[in-house]
Amino acid sequence: MLLQYLIENLTNVKVSGNTNIEINKIEYNSKKITKGDIFVAINGYKEDGNKYVEEAIDKGAVAIVTQEEIEKKDEITYIEVEDSRITLAIMAATYYGNPARKLKIIGITGTKGKTTTAYMIRDIMLASGKKIGMIGTICNTYANKVEESSRTSPESLDLQALLARMVDAGMEYVVMEVSSHALELNRVYGIKFIVGVFTNLSEDHLDFHKTMDEYLKAKAKLFEVSDFAIINGDDIYAPKLMKMIHTKVATFGLDNDVDLTATDVRVNPSFVEFKMYINKMLETIRINIPGRFTVYNALAAIGVCSLFGAQMDSILAALAAVKVPGRNEVIDLNKTFTVIIDYAHTPSSLEAILSSAKKYTRGRVICVFGCGGDRDKAKRAMMGEVAGRLADFTVITSDNPRNEKPLEIIKDIESGIKQTRGLYKSIENRRQAIKFAMRIAWKSDVIIIAGKGHETYQEVEKNKKLHFDDREVVREIAKEMPDKNIQ
Question: Residues 468, 456: contact at Cβ < 8 Å?
Answer without folding.
Answer: yes
